[in-house]
Design brief:
Layout lengths: L1 E4 L2 E4 L1 E4 L9 H28 L6 H30 L3 E3 H34 L4 H4 L2 H27 L8 E2 L6 H5 L7 H33 L5 H34 L5 H26 L1 H15 L1
Parallel strand pairs: 3-5
Antiparallel strand pairs: 1-2, 3-4
Helix pairs in contact: 1-2, 1-9, 1-10, 2-3, 2-9, 3-5, 3-7, 3-8, 5-7, 8-9, 9-10
Keywords: Cell membrane, G-protein coupled receptor, Membrane, Olfaction, Receptor, Sensory transduction, Transducer, Transmembrane, Transmembrane helix
InterPro entries: GPCR_Rhodpsn, GPCR_Rhodpsn_7TM, Olfact_rcpt, OR51/52/56-like
Main location: membrane
Length: about 325
């Protein structure tokens, strides 16, 4: 299980505990995890299928929906299957390389999803403030470049974390009290100084998620300013309605994450299983509810879903 290096014994195999303190309840906890994962897979896959196969939905807003659904599938797949293996089969063993790979994909996909939400706010700003130039500004070529930039930003900012973790010696413990490998959770069981890891993690947080939240806020300030200067109340209502689904998704994405960060920073008296459950919520909830929200709030998608199932029945 261990290998020898110049600083002593370093674990290369780790054990994920799942939800610490609630091991006896793992079977019951697995039920909402499994339901959420199946819902996320089916809902997001259906959304992607509808958007890609319906020419009427080949507009910038729907293409960004498609990117978000792809990120949701990747994000939930990085965690839930392994969590279910722990809950059902006690299969918590994971190698160091697999653990670091999981850290990389979870973190980079989460950052990419935040970037997509930012671009969707920009999309709504263009649609409301410059409706006549909407399609000329957001061309397919620009959308492709935006998508590539979003994913390169996610992978590029997280890649140094791989090397920061690889340099550590894990001689303290090989027990991870979580359902998945996380950067700081893994770094804290090492015997080395992790100040670089902590500060780089803080830099990544500030330069991506916090910056995205600030820019989304600015976008919606500009959107509201434009909306309330519209002459017609009906026009104002339609403009705000187009932003409804996006605002709901933003709250679902950032809300649990912010709450989880605050409890980890200030809630030292809170039980470990609460921290793990909160950290799981901001990974599980958005992929599950995003396609439902867009299906309900977006008439064009709702109509196409009805058409798909009606066609299958005839």
């Amino acid at each position: 299980m261990t290998t020898l290096n110049h600083t002593g014994m370093s674990h290369t195999i780790f054990r994920l505990l799942g939800i610490p303190g609630l091991e006896n309840q793992h079977i019951w906890i697995s039920i909402p995890f499994a339901i959420s994962y199946v819902t996320a897979l089916l809902g997001n896959s259906l959304l992607i299928f509808i958007i890609l196969t319906r020419c009427s939905l080949h507009e910038p807003m729907y293409l960004f929906f498609c990117m978000l659904s792809i990120a949701d599938i990747v994000l939930s797949t990085c965690i839930v299957p392994q969590a279910l293996a722990i809950f059902w089969f006690h299969a918590g063993k994971i190698s160091l390389d697999c653990c670091i790979t999981q850290v990389f994909f979870i973190t980079s996909t989460f950052i990419s999803e935040s970037g997509i939400l930012l671009v969707m706010a920009f999309d709504r700003y263009i649609a409301i403030c410059y409706p006549l130039r909407y399609t000329t500004i957001l061309t397919y070529a620009l959308i492709g470049k935006i998508g590539l930039t979003i994913f390169l930003r996610g992978y590029g900012t997280v890649l140094p974390i791989v090397f920061l973790l690889k340099r550590l010696t894990f001689c303290r413990s090989n027990i991870l009290p979580n359902i998945a490998c996380k950067h700081i959770v893994l770094a804290r069981i090492s015997c080395d100084d992790i100040q670089v890891n902590i500060w780089y993690g803080f830099f990544v947080l500030m330069s991506t998620l916090v910056l995205d939240v600030m820019l989304i806020f600015v976008s919606y300030v500009l959107i509201l300013h434009a909306v309330f200067h519209m002459p017609s109340q009906n026009t104002r209502h339609k403009a705000l309605n187009t932003c409804g689904a996006h605002v709901c998704v933003i709250i679902l994405f950032y809300g649990p994450g912010i709450f989880s960060v605050l409890t980890q920073r200030f809630g030292h008296h809170i039980s470990p299983h609460i921290h793990v459950l909160l950290a799981s919520a901001y990974i599980l909830v958005p992929p599950t509810l995003n396609p439902i929200i867009y299906g309900i709030k977006t008439k064009q998608i709702r109509d196409q879903v009805v058409h798909v199932f009606f066609t299958k029945q005839t």
